[in-house]
Amino acid sequence: MKEIKEKRNTLQKRIVSDVFCSMNNHPSAGMVYEAVNEKFPGISKATVYRLLAEAAEEGKILRLKLTDANDRYDITTKKHYHVVCRCCGAVADVDTQIDDLRMAENAVGCEGFLVEGCHVEFVGVCEECRNQKTYKTEKNI
Amino acid sequence: MKEIKEKRNTLQKRIVSDVFCSMNNHPSAGMVYEAVNEKFPGISKATVYRLLAEAAEEGKILRLKLTDANDRYDITTKKHYHVVCRCCGAVADVDTQIDDLRMAENAVGCEGFLVEGCHVEFVGVCEECRNQKTYKTEKNI
DNA sequence: GTGCGTGCAAACCGTTTGCAATCGG
DNA sequence: CCGATTGCAAACGGTTTGCACGCAC
Questions:
Q1: Residues of B whose CB is below 8 A from A112
Q2: A77, A100, A120 — which closes off a domain?
Q3: How many domains are contained in chain B?
Q4: Which of B34, B42, B113, B127 has the largest count of CB atoms under 10 Å?
Q5: Cβ A34 to strand D below 7 Å
């Protein structure tokens, strides 16, 4: 099913991995690229994008598609959900005791589908944004 | 807060609205554009995008951001969720009796956040895709 | 040496925008 | 008439890709 592919240990691979692991804010590929280039200028944007996408395909990290922003990458690969701040875009991990598939069984509209999982994303305002009173109170979610 | 803006009734507005309302598959802006141009060639893509975005901002329709695809538009504005077919991208409406905010209260990780709502998206395989045996059984959700 | 991995720039794709022309009120 | 709305094409932003070079093995 999968071709045998010999993987090489390159400097950029180590750097991207290190930098990404040191970030704990569910960064987008662009954010990782910037962080990488701050410490080790000269690494190509394409390489960062490629390495992250590759790691995600290998299941080493998670590629999140949240509602408002770009793709985010997540070190935590075990099943969990996220809260997103609608003001600053901050992302945090969330654990719930929800049983996906049981929820789908009780839902109206899933009948034709073989439901295999679900994404849950809470939307709100993080503490910092609430403290600076400028955030819009209207919640257009 | 909002300027008084006199809205005009234009031909393209009526056409886009009619075509969109006759589609029941949560189309993307591009899909609406194609459908519109099939029946009434000559309407600009920009106009279709503008009209849909405008209708969404006015709250007349919903602009969905689902995980894998482009923005989709939804005639149903009342609160509900969606199931997405991971093979063909088909979208269907789902109703659940979930209480968003109570779910957030019981979730670990939302503490810092003022949670205002949540998006739930079931992922699976629709009936048609299951019938044609070619769909990948591996579920990478 | 072989060929995977990289850097660069260009392509990509959906979407948005600037501007002049047009048409509704 | 006037200015909201349109069409066009160009710009946009994040991401991907083609290709020649360079480095890991």
A1: 92, 126-127
A2: A77
A3: 2
A4: B113
A5: no
